[in-house]
Amino acid sequence: MREVEIVDIDFNEILNDFKDGAGSVPSHRHPRGGGWVADSAHVDAECYIGPEARVYGNATVSGNARVYDKAQVYGNAYITANARVSGKSKVYGNAFVGDNAMVYGEAEVYENSKIRNNSQVYENSIVRGNADIKGDVKIFGDSIVTRTVISIQGFDSDITITDHHICINTNTIPPSHLNLFEQIDDEWKKLLLMIAEFHGCVDYAG
Known about the structure:
Strand 23 (159-161) and strand 24 form a beta hairpin. The protein is 7% helix and 30% strand. By secondary structure, it is mostly beta strands.
């Protein structure tokens, strides 16, 4: 009779292919939330990684940060403090998300961008380059941000001017369409178009 060897397998430690070109790499389920974390990444024990979330590459998640839903954090991204990354969003490259900032929806944050303070990036927006989003700024819709935005707050409408849009409350408006927007008067429109031109905000051509 042949002897049967019983092998002790740790099902919390396995090879996973995170589809980043690195092939199958050693990974484990994070004790808080059960999401998969590549052994090459660093996630503090206090953090929460949801069951469908993924952290891989050389990414770091620290402090009380939470990554959940189907969010992915990878590359050299750094998520810390009370930051939240959720939905189907992706944070990668050398991006930083800290303080009480939130990234969610299908937003992408990458390259050398920073999301700080109480700012939020969501829906289909893209933040990249050397963008530094801070304060209470909200980046949403199809906005593309590659640098520091202009934020105008304290009036009836919160206004943010990005690379290609003038964002008014929940509306993202290309500069050429601002005259069609009926919720602000003509004097405001003239002023905003002057500021947008100064900032280099132009309709997206891509």
